[in-house]
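Worked example

This section walks through a single chain of length 223. The input is the sequence exactly as stored; nothing has been trimmed or padded.
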Amino acid sequence: MNGTEYEDNLEVIVRDSLGCFTPLSADQIDTVSNASKYSISENDRDAGSSSLEDVFGYMAALNKMAVSGNGICADRSGNASLHDGLISTADYISHKVNGASVRYIEIGPEPYKTELIIKRLIGNGVDLTSYIGLDINPESEKAMRLALEPVVGKQRFSYKINDYNELQSSSFGFHDGITVVTMMGFQEGNELPRKMLRILKKLPESVRPAPGSTSNPLTCMAI
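Given that input, the structure is written out below as tokens.
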């Protein structure tokens, strides 16, 4: 593993860090990738689905507390809480789209943070034409539909179960407006920002505007 691969491998960094601060050495600590953690064989699907649903539920519960508390993740002066950060992000997006229609794609969806952002966008007058969730956990879709369909409308909600490392803009089709892509993850984080930036930056390469269109077809925002 070269230096760049090491710096981008969050599993290895976590393992080595634990090895520095626990009685265990790094080679005694196992880490599991997202792809392995959420994969279920056909034989184990019925038994494993409830476990994956619980994983999603536990993490969502953490974020529900986080967005409900004005002081969570704030600095020592009480500023920049997670709730306020999400509101600021939605306001930033609203300003940047400048009246264009918006397709919102979310990698690693989560109902409470997402609902807060989407409601803020709509409240700001953003023309939200569709919401697309992309997640590797097959048990997340039910909770996301329950939370967002009443907000965006059933016809404007869609969901894909896939590994974000395989993300391709062609999977979503063309949108004659602005596509905003976010990856906020759960509170424990999913990837280092520089790795996600590379994944998101490759998306515009395969996107071409419709004939005569002057709109910017894809705006990626890694959060």
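What to look for: DSSP finds eight helices and five strands in the chain.
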